[in-house]
Amino acid sequence: MDTTIIAVLLGILEGLTEFIPVSSTGHLLLVGHFLGFDSAGNTFEVVIQIGAVLALVVLYFSRLWGAVASAPSDPASRRFIASIVIAAIPAVLLGVLMHDLIKTVLFETPMLIAVMLVIGGVILLLVDRLELTEVHCDPMRLPLKTALGIGLFQCLSLIPGTSRSGSTIVGALLLGVSKRAAAEFSFFLSIPMMFGVFGYDLMKNRDVLDFTALGEIALGLLAAFVTALLVVRWVLNYVSSHGYAFFGWWRIVVGLVAITALLLGF
């Protein structure tokens, strides 16, 4: 298949999966593996994630800018910003310590990714069926200890196939956050996390990064941006009324198909 077509398909896949609990990185790495698509230092996979995050910034710009602009005079805005910072710290620290292991070993192990998709799907199904009490319904007013708990759950996402959004959403649900608020807080948290991952990854892999295919990277980034714009609002409406079971089954099916294909030598 032409690499330009693959780049667009992967961009669409990134935008489709970045903000739902199915592991966008796991999907990208598995599909790239089966299509024979490879980029030095995973440049393509890292850069196109920024397209999806930029879509989130566009959609939530007024709320986010309002919180930043009012922070000097509004304690609630300062608490919201603090909750994002506190939630980000655990995964940032652990990610820096484990960066080389994650990129050179875990990212290069398709079977691990496929197995984690299945395990995460089962966990998502179980959590979605629990009768949990919803204590917090505003993602911008979570207690700091709740934000820290969500941040600790996010550390699980350092294992490819686990899903950053999946781990944070599951953590939020178990800590009494409503389904919609759990998704939105995960969205907000993804902005500093993904920009941080992008910057740190570029710095660590600057000697092996391959930007020769800038056209393909640009197409993938644009496809991710447009797709994410369409997906985010649908996700919020869907989980508010239907929960997360669909995404749990999605993970299980994709994971089992990938495991089967890998065992058959593909």
Furnish the topology, listing elements before pairings.
Elements: H1 3-17, H2 24-35, H3 43-59, H4 61-70, H5 75-104, H6 110-129, H7 144-154, H8 164-174, H9 179-204, H10 214-242, H11 245-263
Helix pairs in contact: 1-2, 1-3, 1-10, 2-6, 3-9, 3-10, 4-5, 5-7, 5-9, 6-8, 6-11, 7-8, 8-9, 9-10
Structure description:
With 266 residues, the protein is mainly α. It has one domain. The protein has eleven helices and no strands. It has helices at residues 3-17, 24-35, 43-59, 61-70, 75-104, 110-129, 144-154, 164-174, 179-204, 214-242, 245-263. The longest helix has 30 residues, at 75-104. The radius of gyration is 18 Å and the shape is globular. The relative contact order is 0.21.
Quick recap:
The chain is mostly helical. It has helices spanning 3-17, 24-35, 43-59, 61-70, 75-104, 110-129, 144-154, 164-174, 179-204, 214-242, 245-263.
Order of helices and strands: HHHHHHHHHHH
The span between the termini is 16 Å
- Beta fraction: under 5%
Main beta sheet: strand number and arrangement? none
Structural class: mainly alpha
Helix content: over 70%
Rg, Cα atoms, Å: 18 Å
Number of helices: 11
Q: Compute the number of structural domains.
A: 1
Poorly predicted runs:
none
Number of strands: 0
Per the principal axes of the C-alpha atoms, what is the gross shape? globular
The average pLDDT value, as a whole number, equals: 88
